[in-house]
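Sanity check

After download, print the first record. It should look like this:
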Amino acid sequence: MPAADASYPDDLLYHAEHDWARVEGDTATFGVTWYAQDALGEVVFFDPPQVGAQVVKDESYTEVESVKAVSDVFAPLSGEIVEVNQALAEKPETINEDPYAEGWLVKVKLSDPSQAESLMDAGAYRASLR
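Expected C-alpha cells:
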C-alpha cells in the first residue's frame, strides 16, 4: 500500500519535532506527522514503550526504525501511557500508510492538559515546514 498523501488534519495539535496529539478531555493520542513519516522513509520497526510509563513533553519516549535511520519520537505532552498500538508490532508500515488513524503510537493520560496550549494548530505547523 502506498504512503498516505501529505496532510495535516485540523483537529490535531502539532509539536515542532513532527509529532501530533489528538486531545480528548484528559487523554491524548500521539503519533508522527505525515512530514515525519515521509522524511523517515519506510518504517520497518516500532519499539513500543510500556503501558504505565511516564512521558515528558519535549522528551523522547520511543523510537521508530526505517530503512534509512533510527529516529527518536518526542512526546508533545506529558502524562502516563495507558495504551500502545500493538498492531504496529506486526505492521509498522501502517505509520507510513495512515499516520493519523491506524498508525497512531500511544494513548496518554495527561498530567497537565494545559500544556496543549503550547502546541501548534495545523496552519501554524504547515507554516513551520516552509
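If your output differs, re-run the checksum step. Summary of this record's structure: The domain at 13-116 is CATH 2.40.50.100 (OB fold (Dihydrolipoamide Acetyltransferase, E2P)).
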